Amino acid sequence: MLDVYLRLFCERLKRVLAGEEGRLPLPDSTNLAPLFQNLLTESEIIATTLLENYEADMARLLFQLIREEFDEPKISLPFLQLLDLEESDEDVKRQDILEILEDINDFVHESEEAIDTFFINIMQQQNSESESESSTSMALLVGLHGKIIDIRNQMQQLPPGDNGFDINEQRDKLIHLLIEGQSQLDINEFERGREELFDLLIEGPSGLSVVAILDSSGFDKTAFAADTYNNNHVKFYFDCLAWVRVSIVYDFGKILDDIIKSVMPPSRVSVIIGEDYQLKKSVLRDYVTNKKYFIVLDDVFDEREIWDDLQEVLPDNQNGSRVLILVTDPDLLSSLEMENGEKIRLDSVLIGGPLIRLKHEAWQFFILHYGSMPLGNYLQGEAIPTVWRQIYSVMELPFHLKVCCIYLCVFRPSIEISTRQLYQLWVAEGFISSNGEETAEHYLKELIQRGFIQVSKRRAGGTIKACYVPSLEFTSLALMAEKTIFVWNPGMEEESLSNVKRCFIWEHLIEFLSLEHPDIYLQSFLNHSSKTDHLALIQCENFCKKFKHLRVLNLGSAVLDQYPPGLENFFYLKYLKLNITSLKCLPSLLCTLINFQTLEMPSSYIDHSPEDIWMMLKLMHLNFGSITLPAPPKNNSSTLKNLIFISALHPGSCTPDILGRLPNVQTLRISGDLSYYHSGVSKSLCQLHKLECLKLVNEGNMRQLSRMILSEYKFPPSLTQLSLSNTELMEDPMPTLEELPHLEVLKLKQNSYLERKLVCVGCSSFPQLKILHLKSMLWLEEWTMGAGAMPKLESLILNPCAYLRKLPEELWCIKSLCKLELHWPQPELRQRLRAFEDMEWRYGIQLYPSGI
């Protein structure tokens, strides 16, 4: 893994030779193609032939570097003996390898910068007659060949590699040690703990009860708590529920936001979420007062201020509210006392369990744990070995998965990661060269299967929408990223900045931009701070001057007053995310960046885009609050053939000429006055032959009657997902939609249909439909289905169904139907559903606000 830069450099040289580094052909007069080919050949000889002989040496060296980060007192003795690799004469050889690896990284750094400078000069030369800078950069390129030859010669002088260090053998020893140290979980004791916890939640004391749950051998606290949290009896018993991931990076502001988003209705969340921290605490406390709440805080480390923070926002109203704390680091409990007043220490052995009462001045406090180990052993025997096991697992990954996996540490642990954003970043960083998102999705599934990342949300169709990296997995990835200098953040030593290519920050953006970094050569910068720092124009200009070789620029939540000048010089930029609420017109200079793949400005509503946007041939994703595309130039027949995603397109841009130039768009949301633009939108959608996911959101004048006629829409047959919002249809949408041959997900959302009857009587209607959501169809009274309709339906949600007297009898003949969710059903419908309680196979019927 210490050779990561060289291997990524080889991939880049392949892209250069394939003409993928911009549209500029290599000038014949400079005869550079053979030079790049020679660089690639020599680099691959070193990466795949010579360095492979020293894989064991590099692995040993990397493990020693990581080993230095662990305090011996926190590591159990058997595990410590496993990690302590014997010192020998091999250290001299390993030092030689370390020096050569440093030379290789310096060579790659110099080569990357020289190639970048050469192509930028070629680009600028088109507008200038001076060739001096181009000649200088070419001379630098020519000199690189001699340096890579010198490195190869040095490697050939090294003694043979050490084959005595086997990664697989070390991993097997670790797994054996873990299994050997685990006591068998007693099933009877496990069930007793589950019953005691459930009794406490439902029938326990009226005061607020807090339960800290510890991991132990053979016991997964998160899965255990999730099983309880998702129990229907628990859901119906409490008025509001929240599951919040805390992580090793403690941020109560984020915890507060997550609780608010979970327990409060969306209409109130949108108003309060951007307010002052103290105000949000007060609002949350007022909201849950007199409500019976159940909150789970997962992955909690040694942040003892959490007790005070929780007391400020969670009132004890003596109504049976409950909080579960899933403890990763037992140091968190060392500020508490047993009922007899004895202080809890890391060498304390908790007996009398599995559910043990503690002393606490404000709450009814309990610990749930299994086994008889001292508390400190949970960290020594579980957490630290888990981190090392993940490190070994990363080392075993094939290279393409290894870089994608370690890159995950740029995100905060346990924070929700959009898979769409993750795929785009992997592609922009050069980790994935072909088939873009399809390959990225395959990589993600492999990493999930291997346990590095967890799924947090799925789309209605089943694809992964969001994921997160648990704290212990994050720790292992962050250690590897730091020791290989794969990424840098302000918490690392500044000496490593000289060769680093990727930088991310979680806080203090303004301070970072103020620092002088004269020698830094960044290809990627990501701001993941939760604070909305306000960036002055001069700060943006200075940033653009310093880091002109960026491929990825994500300024996150930082607020800009206007589009920053200087971005047009980022020739290699592929991914850009900015927060400019005032931006209404897309700058024409931005469209000169021909390598662009992803443009994200979700807070910008673009009324005007320049014609030059049609020259951005590599564009794949447009993510705006809304964007209006211009009519294509008459003398230009180019298409945006790589564009697959548009977050919100103005309906005025839905003309045959414009949509016909977007042949491969797969996901599209059209948002605006659909009534006014009805003719253009309805007739033009058929131009999108690859369209799979379509959302139609009407945002016209609500005082005027909708003129949308769904039967006039020419939907492409490729559609698999369709969502309608605020369309105020007066005609039944089902006869029009039931003929779509591949439709799997249909969501009729708020005010989509205003009449009282739904009819889908065709014997072959909705042949592929799996998910049906009927939401905010407030007056729906009657729903009729024909025999054989919706034969593959799996999930049905009606919210509300206050006037619906009965469900179609044909529903109960659909064998695939396994989920039925009804909100506010009237008594007549509720009574009819009771007949299905005693059937041999049970539908997953859920009624809100209370169960059957």
From TrEMBL:
<protein>
    <recommendedName>
        <fullName>NB-ARC domain-containing protein</fullName>
    </recommendedName>
</protein>
<keyword id="KW-0611">Plant defense</keyword>
<dbReference type="Pfam" id="PF00931">
    <property type="entry name" value="NB-ARC"/>
</dbReference>
<dbReference type="InterPro" id="IPR027417">
    <property type="entry name" value="P-loop_NTPase"/>
</dbReference>
<dbReference type="InterPro" id="IPR002182">
    <property type="entry name" value="NB-ARC"/>
</dbReference>
<feature type="domain" description="Disease resistance R13L4/SHOC-2-like LRR">
    <location>
        <begin position="545"/>
        <end position="799"/>
    </location>
</feature>
<dbReference type="InterPro" id="IPR058922">
    <property type="entry name" value="WHD_DRP"/>
</dbReference>
<keyword id="KW-0677">Repeat</keyword>
<dbReference type="GO" id="GO:0043531">
    <property type="term" value="F:ADP binding"/>
</dbReference>
<dbReference type="Pfam" id="PF23598">
    <property type="entry name" value="LRR_14"/>
</dbReference>
<feature type="domain" description="NB-ARC">
    <location>
        <begin position="195"/>
        <end position="329"/>
    </location>
</feature>
<dbReference type="InterPro" id="IPR055414">
    <property type="entry name" value="LRR_R13L4/SHOC2-like"/>
</dbReference>
<dbReference type="Pfam" id="PF23559">
    <property type="entry name" value="WHD_DRP"/>
</dbReference>
<dbReference type="InterPro" id="IPR036388">
    <property type="entry name" value="WH-like_DNA-bd_sf"/>
</dbReference>
<feature type="domain" description="Disease resistance protein winged helix">
    <location>
        <begin position="411"/>
        <end position="469"/>
    </location>
</feature>
<dbReference type="GO" id="GO:0006952">
    <property type="term" value="P:defense response"/>
</dbReference>
<dbReference type="InterPro" id="IPR032675">
    <property type="entry name" value="LRR_dom_sf"/>
</dbReference>
